């Protein structure tokens, strides 16, 4: 039975005898045979080569990486090597075996000599346990079998699911806080003084929103929009933003503790990735010389310039979205369709958000063709696979981050602030006016943009992520029927090799790449960015993330177990560079939410009005709401006769400018100073709280430290 357990399967087309491809394939298989590999060939519509490594390879692996005191000097030690380790070692040797033509396996796959190379999903007990307890929708709310995942997919995949499960669990608290914030906002939906003033402003004439076919409009027409804005933008939002800054820190600190516990239970504390890679290189080639550390300032400068150029391209895409919104707003306002002209601003925001989502999908597809990244990695020349993966992670994350957030940054911090004022509007190509904010603020635009992108990403993207492997698996099954030889009269049918059906079934599954797990991490880390950075504008983000993650865990499980070929197990003792990325996002979350409240929200202008200009500052007006008169105070007057002498009308617009020369008023500078002061105070307080939380919660639990200490003491006592 043991003879039929194969570590890897290589798949090739049936090439003509004597062809170049056939010769290259033979050379590679001969190199494996020289290393003692057993190779079994099965012919169907493709050629399948089962590969099994010799026992001495795993004995060498154990001798090189086990503690010297515990090394076993007998050749049967290979039997104790887990299947995940066998696959990892064999995969490394296959990838680094060089033919006489100086070609490796990935070169041969590029040249179509081989089509695929993959480890097998076998019918074993642990796989059945995972299918029953993990890879099915029926166990949606049950705890994940992390130990079994580790035994089947390796530590790296197990740590991903442990991290995702931990993140999802802590999202419950963030989601409840977000719901409480929305509920608090709902209580002031109709009772907000600012909303009441907008709804009662039947005589407040506002300046036209576009130049052609746009008339003056009455402020009270936007009553519902104002109510929604003040449901999002209130005092509870400030508290929620501070809570989320603390939550992000606590989440990471608690994860570090969880990771330390897991790494200790898996005996990974002393494991070194670099040492393992060196050991594998020596097992593959005993004459191997290590690649030394190198650094080139010239190469780093070139990489930095190229990375900045890519970011500039993404900012250019964001500018295109700004242009779209300005043009769409003007066209919708001029439309003869009443629905479009009446709700032009909201429709422009919604379609802009959908267009932004489409650009995210397109740029993600472009990113998946890794030619630019291969160039950057070639310039950097990373030493090891781990270093290559880290460099790749940072660049792709920055690319995806700017793709997802460039438009949101514009809406949050620039929309309505660079559009000019009546008589002196800023125009695109001298024709289309830039958008302005609603008199009650810009935060609803940011809310809509985030809501549309998150909902679309978590529905359409996830459905496609699940359906594409499912459909491709079904198509492969239909397109690859087993080839049966016609029987002669009186001839008995030959018994089919038991390996054949197993290998075919694995071949029919969807392909996995080296970066399959990377893509899963990237998706969740971008979601984490949405959940923390601009969460003050969209308190429902943690709830959407929670719902998505509960589904995502089991969808990923089903894909890995039933729809995709087996992933090559990788060893790891943490989530790698993703932890630094998450810490950077946590810092950005403090800055982002501070800026949203200080700049995007109307919280600061309302507070300045209450304490400096409201009726409450002029005597005992206990019965009067202190924000009474705020709308009139926040709108400037434009005299149309300054530009059209025959017209004596006035209109209002959102800004703090003098009516005579349109310079900024004293109130503008008061608000500017208050915004700056709040931003500095908020960020310093939030960062201090983050530092205190990081200090208060130790990264490594005491029981883990004591366990390691006791182990060291016992080893030293034995040596003594």
Automatic annotation (TrEMBL):
InterPro entries, alphabetized: Anoct_dimer, Anoctamin, Anoctamin_TM
Designated name of the protein: Anoctamin
Keyword Signal: no
A GO term for molecular function: chloride channel activity
UniProt-annotated location(s): Cell membrane; Membrane
Key words, A-Z: Cell membrane, Glycoprotein, Membrane, Transmembrane, Transmembrane helix
Chief localization: membrane
Domain Anoctamin dimerisation: 84-146
GO cellular component: plasma membrane
Membrane topology of the entry: Multi-pass membrane protein
Residues that span the membrane, as ranges: 157-186, 236-255, 302-324, 344-363, 396-415, 525-554, 575-599, 672-697
Domain Anoctamin transmembrane: 149-708
The family this protein is said to belong to: Belongs to the anoctamin family.
Gene: Ano9
Metal-binding as UniProt keyword: no
Species of provenance: Dicaeum eximium
Tree of life domain: Eukaryota
């Amino acid at each position: 039975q043991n003879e039929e357990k194969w570590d890897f399967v290589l798949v090739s087309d049936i090439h003509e005898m004597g062809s170049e491809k056939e010769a290259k394939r033979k050379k590679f298989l001969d190199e494996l045979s020289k290393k003692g590999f057993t190779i079994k060939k099965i012919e169907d519509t493709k050629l399948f080569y089962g590969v099994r490594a010799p026992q001495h390879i795993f004995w060498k692996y154990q001798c090189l990486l086990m503690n010297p005191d515990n090394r076993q000097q007998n050749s049967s030690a290979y039997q104790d090597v887990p299947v995940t380790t066998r696959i990892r070692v064999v995969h490394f040797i296959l990838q680094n075996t060089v033919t006489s033509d100086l070609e490796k396996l990935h070169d041969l796959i590029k040249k179509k000599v081989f089509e695929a190379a993959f480890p097998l999903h076998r019918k074993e007990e642990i796989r059945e346990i995972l299918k029953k307890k993990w890879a099915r929708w029926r166990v949606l709310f049950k705890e994940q079998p992390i130990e079994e995942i580790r035994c089947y997919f390796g530590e790296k995949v197990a740590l991903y699911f442990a991290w995702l499960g931990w993140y999802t669990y802590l999202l419950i608290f963030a989601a409840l806080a977000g719901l409480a914030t929305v509920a608090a906002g709902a209580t002031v939906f109709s009772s907000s003084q600012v909303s009441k003033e907008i709804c009662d402003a039947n005589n407040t004439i506002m300046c036209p929103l576009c130049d052609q076919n746009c008339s003056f409009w009455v402020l009270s027409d936007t009553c519902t929009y104002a109510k929604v804005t003040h449901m999002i933008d209130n005092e509870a939002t400030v508290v929620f933003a501070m809570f989320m800054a603390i939550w992000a820190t606590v989440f990471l600190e608690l994860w570090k503790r969880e990771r330390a516990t897991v790494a200790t239970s898996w005996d990974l504390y002393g494991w070194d990735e670099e040492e393992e890679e060196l050991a594998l290189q020596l097992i593959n080639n005993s004459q191997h010389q290590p690649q030394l550390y190198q650094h080139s300032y010239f190469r780093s400068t070139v990489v930095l310039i190229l990375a900045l150029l890519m970011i500039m391209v993404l900012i250019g895409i964001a500018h295109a979205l700004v242009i779209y919104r300005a043009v769409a707003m003007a066209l919708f306002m001029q439309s003869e369709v009443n629905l479009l002209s009446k709700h032009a601003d909201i429709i422009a925001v919604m379609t802009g958000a959908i267009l932004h989502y489409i650009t995210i999908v397109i740029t993600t597809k472009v990113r998946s063709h890794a030619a630019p990244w291969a160039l950057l990695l070639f310039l950097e020349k990373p030493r090891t696979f781990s270093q290559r993966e880290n460099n790749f992670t940072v660049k792709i994350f920055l690319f995806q981050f700017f793709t997802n957030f460039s438009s949101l940054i514009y809406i949050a911090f620039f929309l309505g602030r660079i559009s000019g004022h009546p008589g002196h509007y800023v125009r695109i190509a001298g024709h289309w006016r830039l958008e302005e904010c609603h008199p009650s603020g810009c935060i609803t635009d940011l809310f809509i943009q985030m809501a549309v992108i998150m909902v679309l990403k978590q529905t359409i993207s996830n459905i496609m992520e699940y359906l594409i492997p499912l459909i491709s698996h079904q198509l492969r099954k239909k397109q690859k029927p087993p080839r049966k030889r016609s029987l002669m009269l009186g001839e008995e049918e030959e018994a089919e090799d038991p390996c054949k059906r197993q290998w075919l079934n694995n071949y029919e599954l969807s392909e996995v790449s080296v970066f399959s797990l990377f893509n899963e991490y990237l998706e969740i880390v971008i979601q984490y960015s949405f959940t923390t950075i601009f969460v003050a504008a969209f308190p429902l983000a943690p709830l959407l993330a929670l719902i998505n993650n509960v589904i995502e865990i089991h969808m990923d499980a089903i894909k890995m177990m039933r729809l995709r070929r087996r992933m090559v197990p990788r060893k790891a003792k943490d989530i790698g560079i993703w932890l630094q990325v998450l810490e950077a996002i946590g810092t950005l979350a403090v800055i982002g939410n501070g800026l949203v409240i200080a700049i995007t929200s109307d919280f600061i202008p309302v507070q300045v009005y209450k304490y400096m200009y409201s009726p409450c500052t002029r005597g005992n007006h206990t019965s009067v709401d202190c924000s009474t008169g705020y709308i009139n105070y926040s709108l400037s007057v434009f005299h149309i006769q300054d530009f059209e002498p025959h017209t004596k009308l006035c209109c209002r617009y959102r800004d703090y400018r003098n009516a005579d020369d349109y310079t900024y008023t004293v109130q503008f500078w008061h608000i500017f100073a208050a915004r700056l002061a709040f931003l500095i105070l908020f960020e310093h307080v939030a960062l201090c709280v983050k530092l205190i939380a990081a200090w208060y919660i130790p990264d490594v639990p005491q029981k883990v430290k004591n366990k390691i200490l006791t182990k060291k003491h016992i080893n030293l006592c034995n040596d003594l």
